[in-house]
Amino acid sequence: MVHLGFFLRSLIQMSALFDKRDKKILILLVFMSILMSLVEVFAISMIMPFITLVSSPDLILSHASARMIYNALHFQTPCTLHIFSVLHLLGFTFSAWVMAYCLPI
């Protein structure tokens, strides 16, 4: 419990260094960092199902919920799934490019 008290005391001391505007910006940056981390985890977790579907698109018809999404997007053939996959990869690449561009050097 000593470590928690030391941590809280340090936070209070650091808080005195910032004015109200800086504190708002800091909170926003922390929130956006957490949000970005969650988006990254989601994007990385979607890679294996994506590769599985691209390697054998017939698997999507064997699962009821996946078939429902397949039909809702009006995919008629595996070719349309591959086109959608290419668009997905382009979006993922663009997202990675934007994140790399926004990182400070």
Textual characterization of the structure:
- There is one protein chain.
- The protein is mostly helical and 105 residues long.
- The protein contains five helices and no strands.
- It is elongated.
- The two termini are 38 Å apart.
- The mean pLDDT is 80.
* Unreliable spans: none
Q: What structural class do you assign from the helix and strand content? A: mainly alpha
If helices are DSSP runs of H or I spanning 4 or more residues, what is the number of helices?
5
User: For the residues shown, what is the average pLDDT?
Assistant: 80
Q: N-to-C SSE series?
A: HHHHH
Share in helix: over 70%
Cα-to-Cα separation, first versus last residue? 38 Å
Query: What proportion strand?
Result: under 5%
| Overall body shape | elongated
What is Rg? 22 Å
**Biggest sheet overview:** none
Please tally the β strands and state the result.
Answer: 0
Identify the notable features of this structure and list them briefly.
105 residues; mainly alpha; 5 helices; 79% helix
A few lines on this structure:
The protein has 105 residues and is mainly α.
Fold blueprint:
Blueprint: H1 2-15, H2 20-45, H3 47-55, H4 64-72, H5 78-102
